[in-house]
Structures
1.
Amino acid sequence: MVGALSGDPQHILLAGGGHAHAVALRRLAKQPLPAGIRLTLVSPSTHNLYSGALPGVIAGHWKADSIGVPLRPLCDAAKVQFVQDRLVSIEPDARTARLESGKQVSFDLASLDIGSGIRPLDVPDALDVIVPIRPIGPFLDRWQKTLAEIKAGSAPPSIIVVGAGLAGIEVALAIHYRLQQEGIAAPSIHLVDAGSDIAGSSSPALRRKLARAMRRAKINLILQTRIQTIQDGSVLLSSGESLETSLVVNCAGSAPHGWIGQSGLNTVEGRVEVDACLRSTSHPHIWAAGDTSYFKPKPLEPAGVFAVRAGPVIAENIGRYAQNAGLSEFHPQSDYLKLISLGDQRAVAEKFGFALEAGWLWHLKKKIDFSFLREHNLTPGH
């Protein structure tokens, strides 16, 4: 067991290498840790793949290896121990966490930034056809395999995306663009959702822009419909329609990790309920950010921007915790600039209910995404 004994340094466990912890590590690399504190980052991967740049990989605008934030160099710079493993449970009262390897880690304080998965589809015997958009690495492996099969003519140029939120729309448009760029003249991309509208929580102006982009790309939008069964590449919908497909991409919304709800922490919708300082409302020595958390002062939609903005607060509060000082509060913005890529080198921007589509917005999104990646890539010689 690893942990803090009497007289030992206070041990802070950072569980997960998501956006919030990546930003916190970058801040900690610039400010020496106070004496009497040691930190450990536990992450199943050595790289945090930046989800905002994923549609560009799907569309073929850049390579997958260009969207990863290397975690080891960040940890080295911040003098944080890196452990490649996965957190599978936590005992808040005992202050211990269990890892996938079977190891147990003790801590004085833990911060959870483990992201979320994708809500599974209730379709029997279809795991070989359905791939969730997260984790990103396995999805990209499957996408590259399917793309090669389509190009070789051994799989039909037909793909179904489930979930007509912003992520599903971006993915559908990116897939359509990539197949056309690969010489598939008329790919069949179907976007299926059980709801009655696209991007349900977005402004009407944004929904109109996105609907227009999908019409231009001839995306087959199928609303108020679910997948019933999948057999031999044939997908039966609840409407009775049958579609041939080589792949079903699940973008049906985020789902928290199941063990969080069994941890004894206060949770809302399976996420750790936190206060204004990002502390668990039931166990203040447990912090959480990003999709792992439910922000009690003002419930937030799952969005990477809030995880990124939480990172500096976590870094500052680690220093304050070490000095036994009061913690800073997290103040998320009331609205933020949404930039949604449209597959080709165009994007839609939306803020305060106003939406605009332009090519320069795609370049702006690219600049923002890769500025973040450069800022957090501390690989020597990079």
2.
Amino acid sequence: MKSITHILEKSVAGERLTFDEGLALLQSHDLVAIGKAANAVTTRLHPEPYRTYNIDRNVNYTNICTAVCDFCAFYRGPKEEGGWVLPREELLKKVEETVALGGDQILMQGGLHHEYKLEWYEELLQDIRSRFPTVNLHAFSPPELFHFTKLNGLSIKDVLERLKAAGLGSIPGGGAEILVDRVRDEMTRGKVSTDDWLEVMRVWHEMGGHSSATMMFGHIETLEERIEHLERLRQVQDETGGFTAFICWTFQPDNTRMDHVSPSGSYEYLKTQAVARLYLDNIPSIQSSWVTQGLKIGQLAMLYGANDMGSLMIEENVVAEAGTVHYLTLDEIRDAIVEIGFEPRQRNVHYELMDPEHEKMAVEANRKWLADRQVKNVYELV
């Protein structure tokens, strides 16, 4: 196979990679060299002596969804058994618990509900904002937002302006999967197209908003399509500069209609993330996906292009439905960062460091919460 040394040297030096060069890296088996180059780029972009993490909670307000996604174990159709909408007070209780543990953000997503108009979502945001004015509402991925336009007969700008006025703070990059319509059309029905996903983000960025970008890979896509996904993100970022971070993870096939697909392993995950760091030269941060990969690979990912350990994830439901359950305590996340030679620091959605006193409070609150839960479990066993 052709040497990739010149491609890696080019990226480390700060030069932009071409599509074919990105593809050559994905086709290469030299994981160590690719990882070393990705770490060098991360060090150039983030020379600071710390690495970051966040504390938030993934609150799913409903699992009822009109889209049919073969890769999703979470959703239920409108007429299927097992569909639910989270009661408002229960949702607010989850936010309250998150704040008590030092969290400053709620990651709120749900299925494409067939009945709820935009007013329902505005009231949801307003209810949370009135009770918890300092909590960032990182909510509604592009498939949801595009669905709102269809259900309400509004433009995406109108939808975003109304939700922003109601309290929307930032947008998660969910529902991207692979931003190539061949892949999307084969795996899902009734969901946003590539161009529409990107347009939602473009309009939000033009309004001054920030969002993350994601990729779920290791299913039916080709390596060329992985690079096409990264290229489309890079193009939008050139236009808007609104993506704060990129997060990728491997497809989790259990309990889905695609359970015949062999799951990708840690090698493929680390290589793809490292290539993403080299290719996405205009997206400042890369987030490790310990939620799907576990502690040790999540920690190793911090040397393969990532500068952020992601979130404590007080609650996560979508990946868990596919049988992948990795839980880390706050101390485990912080220790993982220390073990690779960095100071752990809590950050907000904009990658700004939290006040040290807040950070200390969060550490102590999480230790107490964990101790209380262990005591409760002991009593339940007696």
3.
Amino acid sequence: MRILKYIFLLILLALFATTVFIATQKGNFDVTRSAIIKSPKSTIFNYVNDYRNWETFGSWKKEDPEMTFNYSKNTVGKGGSYSWTGNDGEGDMKTLGVVENKSIQQKMNFNGANCDVFWTFKDTLGGTKVSWRAKGVMNFGMKIYSAFNGGMDHIIGSMYEKSLINLDKTLVYELNTYNIQVNGMVKKMGSIYLKQTITSKIVNVPRNLRVLIPRMVNFFKKNDLKMNGKPFVIYHNYNAVKGLTTLSVCVPMKEEVFTSQGSDITSGKFSSFDAVKTTLTGDYSHNQEAWKKAIDYIKKNNLNQNFDLPNVEIYTKNNEEVANPSKWVTEIYIPIRPKSAVVYKPQPATTSQSTSENTVSTGSSSKKETEQLNTSPDENLKR
């Protein structure tokens, strides 16, 4: 019995010594990992700046397959946030500030411990140097976890290293795997919708859509409105010289609804029209190439674009539904004027007194008909 008491006392002393040792260790940590990623700086910045993309490159999902993620209505830029629950606990992250294409500052909370997170993006040979830093103070629970798992530099550092490798692979594959198909002439059905109109730099359109589309969808949910299809965008004008475009982010509905006076969300509608349809499967960054192919198709087939009607983009599959950019689907509809039909009026029958007159009359008629048949609908339209 006396031996057992000694053993028990030794265990208690060991536990006490371990506790004192852990408690007296420095609680500060500052961990940074960097990598050269073979993608443009703006592309990487925009991808990291949206929390919905983090599942595609974060190493924590592989280490904890049961981990679940919850996204707020805003996941992009300043104020964007998300949270998670896993086997090791739960946490959340919020973006405090961004400097476009240069840096992102975030605040992370994990099991009650807070830390500051910083991203920087710098052009360099071979791509973009991306640095990911975490800085904070450990509570007692985190100190114990750190002590038994190799320290915070190892825990955070190895996770960041794996995630940066995944980010490089993800961007190379996901952003460069795409397909553009010009589907040809279709009838685009009319729509009633609510819209929010903005003027934006053309280069900022993808980023602005990541913010505005979820905001419009949330407006429908908040006001108990039913969507009647996928969100879409109407382009009112597109000035490539100045690099500006005015567009409306729209959500379709079955019945027309009027918002309060002064609201930046208003109602709209358009009727059915003939259009050239083009489908882009892949990241939205290939959108301009899809538009170019659509315009080339219109010119090649001598079609007449109808500038009185809106150009429409429908986001059949977007980042709200699937995380992988290579699986996003965007449909482009460019209005086309119907070709004018050529009406051939029958020639009145002529009663001739002789065969020679009949021959002359018939020859004149045949020549006129031949001229009409050789005139294309487009040429008639130009006249």
